[in-house]
Amino acid sequence: MRATAIAHPNVALIKYWGKRDVQSNFPAVGSLSLTLSGLNTRTAVSFEAARSTDEVLINGQSDQRAGIRITRCLDILRDLAGVDSHALVESTNDFPTGAGLASSASGYAALVKAAAAALGLDIAQSKLDEIARIGSGSAPRSLHSGIVLLDIASGGVDEMTCRTVCEPDAWPLAIEVAITSRAAKDVGSTGGMELSKKASPYYQAWVDTHPADLAAGLTAVEKRDFEGLAEVSEQSCLKMHAMAMSSQPPLLYWSAATVDCMHRIRELRRQGLPVFFTIDAGPQVKAVCLPEAAPQVKAALSELPGVLDVLDSRLGQGAWVE
Ligand code: DP6
């Protein structure tokens, strides 16, 4: 009853920020994301009859806070399998954890994939997406390859679908990840989203205008329209951060180096280079570009003071059992 799975993190171009309901962790908006190769979470799950609780080790450290949500996911899988043993979950990331690089997405994707395999469950992909979503709203996207759409049903029904809309080799984008801090963030996504929902005057406008952004992002992908995707992605990113900043107390995820990277990327685009930025709930900047522009983008970001490292990524595959 042991299995190991590997998942890549993902980065949303059309962002998810806000929950309809924090208990069920159902997102208030859909999202469009890139699954990132080259960055890996490896999670081993073993169900052991002698255990009295689930134990979670992330990068070798016990993590009781994450353990609560992990147990929720494991309970659903245990019920489906008719098993009541507790589990040891050992997860390692080969990139900074909890610093806006979507470690929760790859973490929960690898968790559900490994746990389902360890329990010998033959489970529908949509069910696995649903269980990963209960762990983290961005996690189902890491179960899928390439460019991924997480769509929610209209009319307030808590139903979602998650699927690849463009395979990695159908539009081979490159992603250069500028690391500006290796520290874990102060306010995690869940707390940040709840604060924005409660305290930002822009929250409702975000939810109301989101479907149009998602549709524009999807159309740009279908047409392989890089410039169109750049515009709507940067706007979705800036709208999300404007909402976070307008919460009370305000959430400012950027450092000075984050802003420098944004200016540099926009300057490169004005000079004709196919590149745009996106930033999640942390100070790292992801520069999405066409592969031929990647070396120049990497060089330009590397020379900025405050940029500690630039990681190369491409579109990657969804989580898999090792
Ligand atoms: C800014 O998926 O980490 O990265 O559901 O509370 O675990 P929880 O949130 P999480 O939030 C991701 C927020 C984001 C945007 C995105 O990935 O869509």
Low-confidence stretches: none
Give the tally of β-strands. 16
The ordered H/E elements are: EEEEEEEEHEHHEEEHHHHEEHEE
Assembly state (oligomeric): single chain
Structural class: alpha+beta
CATH class of the largest domain: Alpha Beta
Bound molecules: ligand DP6
The span between the termini is: 14 Å
| Rg on CA atoms, Å | 19 Å
Name of the CATH architecture of the largest domain: 2-Layer Sandwich
Helix content: 25-40%
For the sheet with most strands, the description reads: 6 strands, mixed
Task: Fill in the CATH topology of the largest domain.
Answer: Ribosomal Protein S5, domain 2
Overall shape: globular
Strand content: 15-25%
